[in-house]
Design a protein that fits this description.
The chain is mainly α and 233 residues long. It is built from 11 helices and no strands. Keywords: Signal.
Length: 233
């Protein structure tokens, strides 16, 4: 088993992520800060610990998956509502009544504009999260291959033997199942929140206006508040 296979470029599959977390908890630790880059390490929280660095990659990967799922779902739901607001705008224009157009057209258009702006923003956040993960992975990879302790090979081969044994045992499968279950639970929770919101949103398109609520803020604070707290640990 080669550590480098765990540090492949993203997207890291969930299976590899599981093995990674598993290995990280079961290996002897060693430092990888022998060769500090100019300006120091930018992403690793604890360069003195290879194990902590692996855990950090695991944590960031999980976060990236969650953000990707949540945000892409938000984009999907947000754009689902766009056609109904465009219809409303068309209906208003079709009245041909300038007073009506002037007083009402801005509302559906604002919702559509917000949906587009938010979607861009949500996609951007996913991209940044994956870029961050990629940068962190690169840094750990580089530090690990240039680390004296790793190069000596002694510790690494012990780690290899140990983790190989452990990784082929039943506990791996258990661990993977656990991670998968946790992820599924989290995703289900956020799906439900989105569906509920979508229902509320579709049935009362003007409720948000009356409450003077920014829809994006509503998403972030009220619907995703729980999840965001969870993933920002
Ligand atoms: C336009 O609509 C307003 C409000 O509904 C109405 O008072 C007005 O008479 C209408 N104007 C025309 C030209 O139809
Ligand atoms: C994107 O989101 C951030 C924070 O949530 C906000 O400050 C920013 O104005 C948003 N940008 C756009 C283009 O909506
Ligand atoms: C990732 O690294 C690149 C190149 O060093 C840098 O420009 C970019 O800002 C980094 N991105 C993040 C999210 O840290």
């Amino acid at each position: 088993m080669n550590w480098e296979q765990f540090l492949t470029p993203i997207p890291i599959s969930l299976g590899v992520l599981g093995s990674l977390m598993m290995s990280a908890t079961q290996t002897n630790d060693f430092t990888i800060n022998d060769h500090k880059p100019v300006g120091g390490f930018q992403y690793m929280r604890d360069p003195t610990s290879f194990r902590q660095s692996l855990m950090q990659i695991g944590h960031e990967s999980y976060k990236a998956f969650l953000v990707a799922h949540g945000n892409m779902n938000k984009v999907r739901l947000s754009t689902l509502t766009v056609p109904s607001y465009m219809n409303e705008a068309t209906r208003i224009l079709a009245t041909g009544n300038f007073t009506v157009i002037q007083s009402r057209l801005h509302r559906p258009l604002r919702v559509v504009t917000t949906a587009i702006r938010d979607s861009l923003n949500w996609s951007l956040k996913v991209a940044i999260q994956f870029e961050y993960l990629s940068n962190l992975t690169d840094e750990v990879h580089l530090a690990a291959v240039s680390s004296k302790s790793a190069k000596e090979g002694t510790k690494l081969s012990v780690v290899e033997q140990q983790s190989h044994k452990k990784l082929t045992s039943d506990s791996v499968q258990q661990h993977l199942n656990q991670i998968e279950k946790q992820l599924k639970d989290d995703l289900k929770k956020s799906d439900r929140a989105h569906e509920d919101l979508l229902q509320a949103w579709l049935s009362k398109p003007t409720a948000f206006e009356r409450l003077g609520m920014d829809i994006g803020q509503f998403f972030l604070n009220d619907v995703l508040g729980e999840n965001y707290k969870f993933i920002q640990i």
